[in-house]
Design a protein that fits this description.
Blueprint lengths: L3 E4 L9 H6 L1 E4 L9 H8 L4 E4 L7 H5 L6 E4 L9 H6 L3 E3 L6 H16 L2 H9 L20 E5 L3 H11 L4 E5 L5 H7 L2 E2 L2 H7 L2 E4 L13 H6 L5 E4 L8 H9 L5 E4 L19 E3 L8 H19 L11
Parallel strand pairs: 1-2, 1-3, 3-4, 4-5, 6-7, 6-9, 7-8, 9-10, 10-11, 11-12
The structure holds glyoxylic acid (2 copies).
The site of one glyoxylic acid has 8 residues, from α7.
Length: 321
């Protein structure tokens, strides 16, 4: 009998054709509703592989409920939703989807930066609301992007791709990272600085660092206070890297100018979230890598990783911690 594979969300049928050749595949049938925990725990009992979303918590309890599990393939580059070291200790391989989403996520990061700075969402709403009565010199005036300083926190592949885009806008590029990225320094003119120097001097502070114990609440009350009053904070990594209450306070009190956020502490947020009351906030529903092209490639990569492990081959993109 074929090994059993559970996919925690409805994917399109053509994406899973190759997987169905080697496995019995079951998908949670809903596209827009996450699989309930009880269902996931039950499915895990039989599964040789699980394809997971970043919203599924794959902790020790779930791993212990899955005696046959060989591989967890997460449809994301981030894997903070998975207890990777515990999985590995049980001989389970964890895979993610690096590289394939780099440019798509950098595009969204830049789109959010530009939209926030030039008040694009507010301005579009202004027109739709019928409020445009005349051209006027300072109507919805935002802030320049070109020739400003961008500070990238987390200079991995996506950070580099954002820096590359910034060069086209003649921006000065600062970055902070656990280790120096000499390639980015050489090819993009990015300058390595301390975290404090970055947040104190950058006009745009762009958070792209993975969520780890070291980066949780990295952006806190103190860090927002150190930023320029004109600073714009962009977060496209994980919500808990920033203290959301502190961010709200910083925006309300004018310690920083605006924020563009693709990620939140607890997702999804609903319409009553305090940050949504602020006109200087653009909030997106965690769509960094969401182009149809890239999402299809990510889904195919998850399937390829599962097939490889089930056939005793080498997964293409195992997470190494
Ligand atoms: C999305 O947030 C990802 O980690 O791919
Ligand atoms: C990692 O998160 C990256 O930037 O590719």
């Amino acid at each position: 009998t074929k090994p059993y594979v559970f996919i925690t969300r409805k994917l399109s049928d053509d994406v899973i054709v190759a997987l169905q050749d080697v496995a019995e595949v079951k998908m949670w049938p809903k596209e827009e509703i996450a699989v309930p925990r009880e269902v996931l725990l039950e499915e895990a009992k039989k599964a040789a592989a699980i394809i997971t979303m970043l919203s599924d918590k794959i902790d020790a309890e779930l791993i212990d409920a899955a005696p046959n599990l060989k591989v967890i393939a997460n449809l994301a580059v981030g894997f903070d939703n998975i207890d990777v070291s515990y999985a590995n200790s049980k001989g389970i391989i964890v895979c993610n989807t690096p590289e394939v989403l780099t440019d798509t996520t950098a595009d969204l990061t830049f789109a959010l930066l530009m939209a926030t700075s030039r008040r694009v969402v507010e301005a579009a709403q202004f027109v739709k609301d019928g409020k445009w009565k005349s051209w006027s010199p300072l109507l919805l005036a935002g802030h320049d992007i070109h020739h400003k300083t961008i500070g990238i926190v987390g200079m991995g592949k996506i950070g580099e791709a954002v820096a590359k885009r910034a060069t086209g806008f003649d921006m000065d590029i600062l970055y902070h990272n656990r280790s120096r990225n000499l390639a980015a320094e050489k090819s993009l003119g990015a300058k390595y600085v301390s975290f404090d120097e970055l947040i104190e001097t950058a006009d745009f502070i762009v958070c792209l660092t993975p969520l780890t114990n070291e980066t949780r609440n990295l952006f806190n009350e103190n860090s927002f206070k150190k930023m320029k009053k004109s600073a714009i904070f962009i977060n496209v990594s994980r919500g808990p890297v920033a203290d959301e209450d502190a961010l709200y306070q910083a925006l309300v009190s004018g310690e920083i100018a605006a924020a563009g956020l693709d990620v939140f502490d607890k997702e999804p947020i609903d319409a009553t979230h305090p940050l949504l009351t602020l006109t200087n906030v653009i909030a997106l529903p965690h769509i960094g890598s969401s182009s149809t092209e890239t999402r299809e490639i990510m889904m195919a990569l998850c399937c390829d990783n599962v097939i490889a492990v089930l056939q005793n081959g080498k997964p293409k993109t195992p997470v190494r911690i």
